[in-house]
Write a structure and sequence with these properties.
Largest sheet: 5 strands, mixed
Order of helices and strands: HHHEEHEHEHEEEHEHEHEHEEH
CATH class of the largest domain: Alpha Beta
Helix content: 40-55%
CATH architecture of the largest domain: 3-Layer(aba) Sandwich
Number of strands: 12
CATH superfamily of the largest domain: Periplasmic binding protein-like II
Number of domains: 3
Number of helices: 11
Shape: elongated
Radius of gyration: 24 Å
Strand content: 15-25%
Strand order of the largest sheet: 4-3-5-12-6
Structural class: alpha/beta
Length: about 300
């Protein structure tokens, strides 16, 4: 397979339309059609069915597309490695939800910079629900997030730690004195009834942490006041540290975030269980030295808490 042919066929599949694919590729439609016809003749089978709704891959086409994606992915990784070797620069690209951005900014990025001077870090911020879609579609080589069991057969994952949804409160908050240690819990437990009149800090309505909080309110029959709503979940913990309110958040390592002296974690009963957190990447992807170090740095952050 030639890379240009792979690119052309992938674009046809993505657009589902020869005219739109030709425009995107900056070639004429007759040129694109001629390439596809010649390729199908050499294979001996059609790659697409021309239906009223657009170009639909055949069974042979699906097999070709899978191989084409692997070819393009390997070529992109190869080009990146050559660029890094020729410029003597190291870089890392990571997809993650906004809630974990402070962990990377406060801990992982400085640690990487110490180990690899001049390293360049690139983030792709997106929701937890879109992370693996973006990973599979090659929008980012690495993803940090909750590891879904249903994708275990199509991705690689290096586990770095566990999280659970907990109540983050400002240091010295009255709830600290009311919380009680319980066997099997990582944090002192506080009864949900005590939160009835406690101001909360929430992220935007579509954020996963906000949905968890709203579900928690409903399950426990409480309607606490909302002191502040922020645009990004990464801004919630700093607001808690400033004693604006409390919040339900994943138990990101406080020590690594540099706010252990300002925030306390307490356990409340939620419908969320223990969450496996990992660095995920495609099956055909090989971690470079910076990426391998990144995995180890995150694992250390979770171990140290």
């Amino acid at each position: 397979m030639q890379l240009r042919e792979c690119e052309y066929v992938l674009t046809i599949a993505e657009e589902g339309n020869m005219s739109k694919a030709a425009q995107r590729l900056y070639v004429s439609q007759p040129t694109l059609s001629k390439m596809l016809n010649k390729l199908e003749e050499s294979i001996g089978a059609p790659l697409f069915e021309r239906q009223s709704g657009g170009m639909v891959p055949t069974r042979t086409g699906e097999a070709y597309l899978q191989g084409a994606r692997r070819m393009m992915d390997l070529n992109a990784q190869w080009e990146q490695e050559i660029l890094m070797a020729s410029t003597h620069l190291e870089n890392i690209s990571v997809g993650l939800p906004m809630v974990r951005m402070p962990l990377l900014n406060y801990y992982a990025v400085p640690a990487l910079a110490q180990r690899f001077p001049g390293v360049q870090t690139h983030y792709l911020y997106t929701s937890q629900g879109k992370l693996l879609v973006d990973l599979i579609n090659n929008k980012c080589p690495l993803v940090v997030g909750i590891v879904p069991a249903k994708f275990a057969n199509i991705i690689n994952c290096d586990l770095v730690g566990e999280e659970e949804y907990i109540l983050a409160v400002p240091k010295g908050h009255p709830l600290e004195a009311q919380a009680e240690p319980r066997p099997g819990l990582n944090y002192p437990h506080v009864d949900s009834a005590l939160l009835r009149d406690v101001p909360f800090v929430l992220s935007r309505a579509d954020a996963y942490s906000t949905r968890v909080a709203r579900r928690f309110f409903q399950e426990n029959g409480i309607r606490p006041p909302i002191a502040l709503t922020v645009q990004n979940t990464s801004d919630v913990l700093p607001a808690v540290a400033k004693a604006i309110g409390v919040s339900l958040l994943p138990s990101l390592p406080l020590g690594a975030l540099g706010v252990a002296h300002k925030v306390t974690y307490l356990h409340v009963k939620t419908s969320e269980g223990r969450l496996q957190i990992g660095v995920m990447y495609r099956r055909d992807y090989v971690l470079n030295a910076v990426e391998s170090a990144f995995v180890g740095i995150l694992r250390q952050a979770y171990q140290e808490g």
